[in-house]
Design goal:
This protein has 191 residues and is of the alpha+beta class. The chain is built from 7 helices and 4 strands; from the N terminus they run βααββαααβαα. It has a single domain, classed as Transposase IS200-like (Alpha-Beta Plaits, 2-Layer Sandwich). It is globular, with a radius of gyration of 17 Å. Helix 2 runs antiparallel to helix 3. 35% of the residues are buried. Strands 2-3-1-4 form a 4-stranded antiparallel sheet, with helices on both faces.
Length: 191
């Protein structure tokens, strides 16, 4: 899966956004939120940190502190999207949701078909912004947490289950445990 521009840095804090193909609400349709949580577990096991997230019905925003590793950040994110795509397709099969599976299959281009790609689950690229200052991280966290409210999915940020807002607003961990962006100041990400 491509990215608009490669992430050249071996480590750092990044605001990452990826979107379901053609903004289809696949996380909601498949109840596939746990696929992201599984990817978060993988990231943590690899020494990275989740400092904020929101999983909307059709896209996700994540603030991730990537520790230096041999695997480029772009590859880590692309592999995560690939894993989630397989999981969402599996769930669609389990639901017998052939209509959506056919739609996702119709969005695969000829070149990708030659490489055995069967479904277009996510948009081919993902957006990323490097967060070099605390002020920028705070701005992105606020954006993440207000996203469900702007979409009419929650009246207060901390009421949306698939978000780190509960921890930031109440001090109690939500569905998935995170650290705050302020805690990142005490973590060495470089080798």
């Amino acid at each position: 899966m491509s990215v608009r521009t490669k992430i050249g840095e071996p480590d750092g804090v990044f605001f990452i956004t990826f979107t379901c193909a053609r903004w289809m609400p696949l996380f909601q349709i498949t109840d596939g939120y746990s696929a992201l949580y599984t990817w978060f577990d993988y990231l943590k096991q690899a020494g990275h940190y989740i400092a904020g997230y929101v999983i909307m019905p059709n896209h996700a925003h994540v603030l991730i502190a990537f520790s230096a590793s041999q695997t480029p950040i772009t590859t880590v994110v692309a592999n995560g999207k690939r894993f989630m795509a397989y999981e969402l397709v599996k769930r669609l099969h389990e639901q017998g949701n052939n209509k959506i599976l056919e739609q996702l299959a119709s969005w695969v281009n000829k070149t990708e078909r030659l490489h055995n790609k069967k479904h277009q689950v996510f948009e081919p690229s993902f957006d990323r912004k490097e967060c070099r200052t605390i002020a920028f991280m705070k701005q992105k966290i606020n954006y993440i947490h207000l996203n469900p409210c702007k979409a009419g999915l929650a009246t207060l940020p901390e009421h949306y289950a698939h978000s780190s807002a509960k921890y930031y607003y109440t001090g109690k961990q939500g569905v998935y445990p995170v650290i705050t962006y302020m805690e990142l100041q005490d973590i060495k990400l470089t080798l």
